[in-house]
Design goal:
The complex is a heterodimer.
Chain A lengths: L1 H28 L6 H9 L4 H11 L6 H13 L5 E2 L4 E2 H36 L4 H15 L2 H15 L16 H6 L1 H27 L2 H8 L4 H40 L4 H10 L3 H29 L7
Antiparallel strand pairs in A: 1-2
Helix pairs in contact in A: 1-4, 1-13, 5-6, 5-9, 5-11, 6-9, 7-9, 7-11, 9-11, 10-11, 11-12, 11-13, 12-13
Chain B lengths: L18 H12 L3 H23 L19 E8 L4 E8 L15 H37 L1 H16 L2 H12 L3 H11 L2 H15 L2 H8 L4 H12 L1 H24 L10 H8 L7 H29 L6
Antiparallel strand pairs in B: 1-2
Helix pairs in contact in B: 1-12, 2-3, 2-12, 3-4, 3-6, 3-7, 3-10, 3-12, 4-7, 5-6, 10-11, 10-12, 11-12
Classes of the chains: A mainly alpha, B mainly alpha.
């Protein structure tokens, strides 16, 4: 068990190194350089472009050999020197520290919403297989998977905020995070982000439950005279949970982070997605890269956590 | 070939000997799934629109401020104009015009022409990027499984690293670094989206690799390349087709999302670009945000239905 954890940790470190290396290569391959921001200005003033270029490259360390740049890049990342956001005039770390909580609340609420309803409806659909409830659930999940979350967000704003006037059309940061008003204004964003997730979880829960419902141990459990509630809730669900945990954790990285990014932009929630979005237009390099890196490191951490959670969920797994 | 195996259905399943018959057999199974056929129908319709539509449609980028915010045919909106010299509101009812059956946006561009252009872009990006991703995924998956040893190890660790990146955040970063253009978007989605396919095909190939017919052909002196291309890849081809169909919707949504946040090709009109315009006029011109979203939703839904049908048709265990 302990050696397994150590092994996973080393493995995660290797992946983290890979992530940093790939972003470094991408940044160096990219056609843009910090010099570009100044070039036009300099040329317009009639100054010598070449000498200024050299000065800026020396300032950013771009004149050093590529290997040295690589080590500086990695050591800066490790020391938390993630760069300077010139469009907001603060360090990237400060910028992210003051905005992450908005993303976090959205992702947390949407995921709870999706897991509770998705797993619940999925179980219901599996138990009532081939009934109207099952068909309705499957149509709903197809629609939920296919509907683009950011468009759903726009439609929700249009119907419930613009025409019905039940909500504000924008996110108001004057409300404290822990307030009912804040919770109320998160209803539409949570729906926009959560319905896609929910549809996925519903589908996976249904098929995982159906896989297990056919197995012999279910027949045995019923033959023992256990009430149906215990059979479904304890025996079948317990066995269906493992693949579900994988899917939910995997979704967090691939679907939820991307979805949250767009949802924040649609609703004007000042989370990391919005920060990155603003940075794109300000051509604020360090911020765009930092948001992607943070998302990636979070996924790495979540994957590691999933591996460790498995030990508790499935005692059959042996780690050696 | 006289012995005919009785199938699950009352009709005996025909023996499959020639490719022609195999296709008939799959088609027969596919056509039992109505939703899947409907999906295929919509995809064919959309392809025709994408290929031939732009020939007949007016220029989607032509602006005309005389006819801005024209509602779709059959709809009407009230427009209030405040006259500064009399201080009165005059309300005029604006009717849709048959020249612009789906209305116009805030710059007077024809919605129908823009949707047609969007269909072309979406399908082009969807097919090309998926093509690259599936090709790479198949190649890496088969190579990895067939080689084993350190090649397998290195390729799979690289896949792990790429999988850790949240797909959309990675796209945003790379398209931001390299600049938005259709070619870059297709390349980036293709070069980052192969990981799932690689893993699936690797595991499938691993199970096929140990079968007797592979051993037999190796004993007959077949080269590695021959075994890979003539035996392994044809045996995972149905898997590849299903994966490709089911990954197109994700690609189409990713392209739309990129255009929506302003990282689309500025030279072309895609559904995401229209949605971006439409989100600012939800209260005055609802159709600009509604129409491209519906197209996007129907397209994604069709590919999901069709892909699901294909998977069932190819899977001999599914009870069709």
């Amino acid at each position: 068990m302990r050696s397994y954890i150590i092994k996973r940790l080393i493995y995660s470190v290797i992946i983290a190194w890979g992530i940093m290396t790939i972003t470094f290569i991408l940044l160096r391959l990219g056609p843009t350089s910090p010099v570009d921001r100044y070039i036009l200005n300099i040329a317009a003033r009639g100054q010598d472009v070449e000498s200024v270029r050299q000065a800026i490259e020396a300032r950013y360390g771009l004149d050093k050999p590529i290997i040295e740049q690589y080590f500086i890049y990695i050591s800066n990342l490790l020391q938390g020197k993630w760069g300077w956001s010139f469009s907001t005039s603060q360090t990237v770390v400060d910028l992210i520290a003051s905005h992450w909580v908005y993303s976090f609340q959205l992702i947390l609420l949407a995921t709870i919403f999706a897991i509770v309803l998705g797993v619940g409806l999925g179980m219901l659909a599996a138990v009532k297989q081939n009934t109207r409830i099952d068909y309705a659930a499957s149509i709903f999940s197809f629609i939920g998977i296919s509907i683009p979350g950011f468009w759903l967000g726009l439609m929700l704003i249009m119907v419930f905020a613009v025409y019905l006037g039940w909500f504000k059309t924008y996110y108001d940061t004057n409300y404290p995070i822990w307030s009912l008003e804040n919770l109320k204004q998160l209803i539409l964003p949570v729906l926009a982000l959560g319905i896609g997730e929910l549809a996925g979880y519903l589908r996976y829960t249904r098929s995982a439950m159906l896989d297990n419902l056919r197995k012999d141990f279910v027949t045995t459990a019923r033959a023992k005279g256990l009430p149906e509630k215990t059979v479904i809730g304890k025996h079948v669900l317990r066995n269906a949970v493992l693949p579900l945990v994988t899917i939910i954790m995997f979704d967090l990285g691939s679907v939820v982070f991307g979805g949250a990014y767009l949802t924040e932009i649609v609703f004007g929630i000042p989370g990391l997605g919005q920060v990155s979005f603003n940075a794109i237009f300000a051509n604020d390099y360090a911020v765009v890269v930092a948001v992607t890196l943070i998302g990636t490191f979070l996924v790495l951490f979540i994957n590691l956590a999933t591996d460790l959670i498995y030990t508790y969920l499935d005692p059959r797994i042996r780690y050696d | 070939m006289t012995d005919v195996k009785p199938g699950r259905s009352s009709k005996p399943i025909k023996p499959v000997t020639i490719n022609r018959r195999l296709l008939d057999y799959y088609w027969e199974r596919l056509s039992k799934n109505r939703l899947s056929l409907a999906g295929l129908g919509f995809i064919v319709f959309l392809s025709l629109v994408g290929i031939f539509g732009p020939i007949f449609a007016p220029d989607p980028q032509k602006t005309d401020f005389e006819i801005r915010n024209l509602p779709p045919l059959g709809c009407s909106i009230d427009e209030s104009v405040y006259a500064i010299n009399t201080g009165e509101f005059t309300t005029t009812v604006i009717q849709g015009s048959p020249d612009h059956p789906l209305g116009t946006d805030s710059k007077g561009r024809d919605m129908l022409a823009m949707l047609i252009s969007g269909a072309r872009i979406s399908l082009l990006v969807g097919l090309l990027a998926t093509g690259i991703a599936i090709f790479l995924g198949t190649f890496i998956g088969v190579l990895s499984a067939y080689s084993g040893g350190w090649v397998d190890n290195a390729l799979m660790r690289f896949t792990d690293i790429m999988m850790t990146f949240p797909f959309f955040l990675l796209l945003v970063m790379i398209v931001f670094i390299f600049g938005p253009s259709l070619a870059i978007i297709v390349l980036v989605i293709g070069l980052t989206g192969w990981t799932g396919a690689a893993r699936l095909i690797r595991s499938e190939t691993l199970s096929i690799r140990t079968r007797d017919f592979i051993t037999a052909s190796r004993a007959l002196g077949a080269s590695d390349a021959r075994i890979m291309f003539n035996h392994l890849i044809p045996n995972v081809s149905s898997l590849i087709i299903v994966m490709a169909t089911l990954s197109i919707p994700g690609v189409i949504m990713a392209e739309a999302a990129l255009s929506f946040i302003g990282l689309g090709d500025p030279m072309s009109t895609s559904w995401g670009t229209i949605l971006n315009t439409g989100q600012h006029s939800l209260d005055t011109a609802w159709w600009v945000a509604v129409e491209p979203g519906i197209m996007l939703f129907l397209t994604v839904l069709s590919f999901n239905f069709f892909g699901d049908g294909l998977r069932d048709a190819f899977d001999p265990r599914s009870g069709i």
